[in-house]
Amino acid sequence: MNPNSDLASNSSRLRGFWSDNIAGASPEIIAAVAACNAGQARPYGNDDLTTSVERRLAEVFEHEVDVFLVSTGSAANALALAAVTPPWGSVLSHSDAHINRDECGAPEFYTAGAKLVQLPGEAAKIDLTALAVNATRFVGDVHSVQPSSVSISQATEVGSVYSQGEIGAIGEACRSAKIPLHMDGARFANALVTLGCSPAEMTWKAGVDLVSFGATKNGTFGVDAVVSFRKDIASALGFRRKRAGQLSSKMRFMSAQMDAYLRDGLWLRNAAHANDMAKALAAGLASIPGVEIQEPPEANILFCRLPMPLIRGLLDMGFGFYHDRWEPGIIRLVTSFSTTAEDVSDLVRAASALAGSELP
User: Fold this and answer.
1) β-strands 292-293, 224-228: how paired?
2) What residue ranges in 73-219 does DSSP mark as E strands?
3) Most buried pick, 96, 203, 216, 324, via CB within 10 A?
4) Residue 350 is part of which domain span?
5) What confidence tens digit (pLDDT) does each residue in 184-196 have?
6) pLDDT tens across 183-237, in order?
7) Of 264, 299, 331, at which residue does a domain stop?
8) Per-residue pLDDT tens for 91-127?
9) How many CA atoms lie within 13 A of 359 on its CB side?
């Protein structure tokens, strides 16, 4: 039985909340790609647009950087870690990190066998004590993998955000152990908007050595970047990108996306909107009987506990979200730059109707 025929009849305009990668691309991105299609350009990143992107990212981060555009976030993470982690080394990350759970062994593959060491911590953030212990464990012991790099996700897979102080403390632990710090920034902009700080303050000023700078989840349709603050690994990253098949011959089409993404604050506006939609979703669902918000959203990801009949009802009405990857009754809702207030209100109204409650 469908308790809301109006919603059912308008199901064609309902949008899913599986992830922010189900959204299309920002119109500005499409326009930029179309514009760069005219004429010819030098291949393999030797074009003016790629140079512009490198210059723009240096301005964004207030630091000299080496930029390596790639087609996916998994490639960015794996290549970044491979540049600083030998085959006999280990990458220390949270057990819930994307590199550990969702990249099908790509970091191990590109590092030629380095081991991922899982660390505990609340809200999918690395516990500093566990990091300090593991960053120095068995150093120099030829029988053991050597702690070689640390990777943090910003924002995390559960939507939490490392504070500047937390990143700084991890950075200090890495410096003390003489190992580099990598940031998986698939949702870099969402975290940055939440903290209200500068990209420099969230990265190199806090001890981060290289970043997987995500854009695909926030408005582009196929470009992320490895941004390195360390000159000594630039050559390795260049060769690794080529060997991995990630050096695009028509690089201008990737660069056009990133250039438009960074131009006029589009990346920050998109992220702020996605974050606001997650907050609106949490506020709307919180008053519905049977719905438990797990944690207030810090970025654009919301986890809730719902009765199974309510989950099934929402799925039957055409709403899309992940609900079978965690414990029973836990769902994940992810908003994006293209999520509308109407999308949010439709989901809240449907949940309220299924729960037999009246919205205030």
Assistant:
1) unpaired
2) 89-94, 115-119, 146-153, 181-185, 210-213
3) 203
4) 5-24+267-355
5) 999 999 999 999 9
6) 999 999 999 999 999 999 999 999 999 999 999 999 999 999 999 999 999 999 9
7) 264
8) 999 999 999 999 999 999 999 999 999 999 999 999 9
9) 13
Any domain includes 101: yes
Same domain, 38 and 176: yes
- The verdict on 10 and 37 lying in the same domain is no
Calculate helix-pair angle for 234-243, 73-84, nearest 10 degrees.
130
**Bridge partner list, 153:** 184
Burial 166-176 (b: 16+ CB within 10 A, else e): bbbbbbebbee
* Cβ-proximal residues to 114 (8 Å cutoff; 6+ apart), any chain: 81, 82, 85, 86, 87, 88, 89, 90, 91, 107, 108, 145, 148
Q: What are phi and psi of 90, to 5 degrees?
A: -130, 150
Say if residues 336 and 16 touch (Cβ distance below 8 Å).
Answer: no
Query: What phi and psi, each to the nearest 5 degrees, are found at residue 237?
Result: -65, -40
Is residue 160 located within the same domain as residue 290? no
At residue 185, what is the residue type? G
Place of tokens 């039985």: 1
- End position of a domain, from candidates 208, 241, 264: 264
154 with 51, same domain: the answer is yes
Residue 256 and residue 319 share a domain: no
DSSP, collapsed to helix, strand or coil, labels residue 15 as coil
Q: Are residues 63 and 188 in the same domain?
A: yes
